[in-house]
Amino acid sequence: MEEGTSLGSADTAGNTRLRSARQALGLRSQQQFAEAITRAGSGIGLRISITERTVRRWESDNPPWPHPDHQAAIEHLFGRPVSELGFTPPWAGGEPDASQAERPAAAPVVAASAVAGPLAMFPKRALADPLPGSVAADYIAITSAYRHLYWAVPPAQLHETVAAHVKLGVGLIASVPEAARRSLAAAICESSLLAGRIEFFDLQDPQQAQASLVTALQAAQDAHDSLLGSAVLAHMAFIPAFSGDARRAEEARDKIRAARQFARRGPASPEMLAWLDAVEAETETRFGDTRKALQLIHHAEDIYATGEHRPSPAWLDWFSPVRLAGFKGNTLLIDRQPGPARQTLQDVLDHLPETAAKQRSVILGDLAAVAVSEDNPQEACQLAELALDQLARTWYATGMARVRAVRESLSSWESLPCVRRLDERLYDWNTTISALTG
Q1: How far is residue 19's CA from residue 78's CA, in Å, rounded to a whole number?
Q2: Domain coordinates of the chain in residue numbers?
Q3: Fewer CB within 10 Å, N or C, the chain?
Q4: 393-426: string of b/e by CB count within 10 Å (b at 16+)?
């Protein structure tokens, strides 16, 4: 008999759904359940360590909503969403509320979103009528189209359709022929990764992005695609890296280590390895180690310089030597090297392709920040206004964040006409509404 739980009268109290599901798997003690969840997480690339105390809280009268990684492991073990196992999501308006959401001791982590949460498991039952293998091919074609649309369609508008596309794929996968399931799962992963990218970079919603990325990781496992798994894990590192919480540094670094391990299984193309260097460099920059970040960027530059051109996956369309230089320019800026930063960023701006409209607003914002560091508020305002011009054509929340950071740094020159003119642009109707609605 396990501590704090009997198999007799106590079954009428607490989270009976989870306890019954656990016992149905032959896991008679909470300790056995904790070990099974830990193993299930490891099986999908998550480094978690569940304790008996955590299980006891889950099986209590008022169980907290699980941490997203724990949620993914639970759903992987049972093949059912946690909402069917006695857990009530914080967004449902009932108990437990958002303040009760489970958090690991090392770092606060957000709960999954209402939109993406229900997608974070694959059905085990097929539809009444099996579907032809051509369904997978058609779904993949639509996935490819969304990949291209991301660079042109307003993110808030595209997000709704991509999220629906993920939900459709999750509902179809059990009904297509076995031979088509891996390719369909890979497309679901790519679609959910795209949803997560939109949520994080375009809409600045890390909670929703985390849930979408967990779904993408599960799909990558079903597809047996280590490279997609690596890409998802690397994107997961951005969430703690941009949180502003230094306590989450190890969380971000752990995700990068996992991403590199998955990439080795691929094996990854040189370009993907360079991108992983850039992700790690971005992470180290956010946590203050610009020296290590620049070393990583130089290593990525060396990878490109070797001239090896093994092809990257089609979905790796967000990285290139020019994008790497953009990472470098921002790191040089934060490292207080305004001269090299200006030269690097200007070169990036001159060589960005026409399709890189979102990145252009980021680079303009960084160049404006360089001007501030050189005590040139006039030029900073001019560049910030150019970034706003770009954002008016192609909205990108990450670009707007750069502009707002520049405006904050201009507080010493608030009386200047150029700063007042920037405020007029920054807080006009269109820009204000775009910032609030994405």
Answers
A1: 12
A2: 1-105, 114-224
A3: N
A4: ebbbbbbbbbbeebbebbeebeeeebbeebeebb
